[in-house]
TrEMBL record:
It comes from Diaphorobacter limosus. PROSITE patterns: POLYPRENYL_SYNTHASE_1, POLYPRENYL_SYNTHASE_2. Belongs to the FPP/GGPP synthase family. Its cofactor is Mg(2+). InterPro entries: Isoprenoid_synthase_dom_sf (IPR008949), Polyprenyl_synt (IPR000092), Polyprenyl_synt_CS (IPR033749). CDD domains: Trans_IPPS_HT. Gene3D superfamilies: Farnesyl Diphosphate Synthase (1.10.600.10). Keywords: Magnesium, Metal-binding, Transferase. PANTHER family: ALL TRANS-POLYPRENYL-DIPHOSPHATE SYNTHASE PDSS1 (PTHR12001:SF69), GERANYLGERANYL PYROPHOSPHATE SYNTHASE (PTHR12001). This is Polyprenyl synthetase family protein.
């Protein structure tokens, strides 16, 4: 989402103090008798990022009036789970750049990244137990399992030019949106909300996470490499078939379709400029942004079911700002 957006900044300002408390929890729970564990974990967590998942949990907690300390603990948990997936993802994808600097696997090696990712997963599960809630543990255990399934499904889909929109959405709802959904749902559980409110929170999280990932896939072809902090065209090199490419293949000429199919199957980035031109010329970027907009509207519809207050307004703003995201 637009990093410089006044409304986004105002939304995050609502939970600035809460995020400081979450940072304290993160710092304390990264302690390990093995120095390399803390070194790698702190390296990737200190890289920054938008911290949207813990922010979402805190905002929904605020919207529902929950002020208990467990919101800090669980916000740190979802950040640890997310960070673990990043460590593993970068190894699987052989990525070298994330958020404008070398990935952990590039700096520390693949074995350290995988094993520290495992540490973060296991530490997150230790912290879940602190809630004393089987429901919380169920939601997070289920979410982590779904995320792992999404990762495996994405691996199976690599270099598959026949992947359609439904298959693409299935992966991102598992791999990305599930942790957004869990973050929002956890806040509702902590607040002791009704089943209807809990579902509205979960619906918001899933739609927001889906929109976020769809826009992220647009930016692989429409962003600035320096601003994005990643290499444009990474998805092609990795054989990932994302919505802009799927739509371009549907709309393009036979020759364009064949070029895209060949690039997907080989993972070659030699034709990156031509691929980007095809995606633009077929209107695939605009169509993909429309798909993200539809998800953002679903998120806003779900947020409208929550109590009316500044936090709920912030949730509405987060969804709206996704439509303007350029970095």
């Amino acid at each position: 989402m637009a990093a410089n957006s006044p409304s986004t900044a105002a939304t995050l300002a609502l939970i600035a103090n809460d995020m400081q408390e979450v940072d304290k929890v993160i710092a304390s729970r990264l302690q390990s008798s093995v120095p390399l564990v803390g070194d790698v974990a702190r390296y990737i967590i200190s890289a920054g990022g938008k911290r949207l998942r813990p922010a979402l949990l805190l905002l929904v907690s605020g919207a529902l009036g929950y002020q208990g300390a467990q919101r800090f603990n669980l916000a740190a948990v979802v950040e640890f789970i997310h960070t673990a997936t990043l460590l593993h993802d970068d190894v699987v994808d052989e990525s070298t750049l994330r958020r404008g600097r070398a990935t952990a696997n590039e700096s520390f090696g693949n074995p350290a990244s995988v094993l520290v990712g495992d540490f973060l997963y296991s530490r997150a599960f230790q912290m879940m137990v602190d809630t004393g809630s089987l429901r919380v543990m169920q939601v997070l255990a289920d979410a982590t399992n779904v995320i792992a399934e999404g990762e495996v499904q994405q691996l199976m889909n690599t270099h598959d030019a026949s992947l359609d929109e439904a298959g693409y959405l299935n992966v991102i709802r598992s791999k990305t949106a599930k942790l957004f959904e869990a973050s929002a749902r956890l806040a509702a559980i902590l607040a002791g909300s009704t089943a209807e409110i809990e579902q509205a929170c979960a619906d918001y999280g899933q739609a927001l996470g889906t929109a976020f990932q769809v826009i992220d896939d647009v930016l692989d072809y429409d962003g600035d490499a320096q601003e994005m902090g990643k290499n444009l065209g990474d998805d092609l090199r990795e054989g990932k078939v994302t919505l802009p490419v799927i739509i371009a293949m549907q709309r393009g000429t036979a020759e364009q379709h064949e070029l895209l199919r060949n690039v997907i199957e080989t993972g070659s980035t030699d034709e990156l400029q031509r691929v980007a031109a095809i995606i633009r010329d077929t209107g695939a970027l605009s169509a993909t942004r429309d798909a993200a907009a539809a998800q953002a509207r679903l998120a806003m519809d779900a947020a409208a079911k929550l109590p009316t207050n500044s936090y709920t307004e912030g949730l509405l703003q987060l969804a709206a700002q996704l439509l303007e995201r350029r970095t």
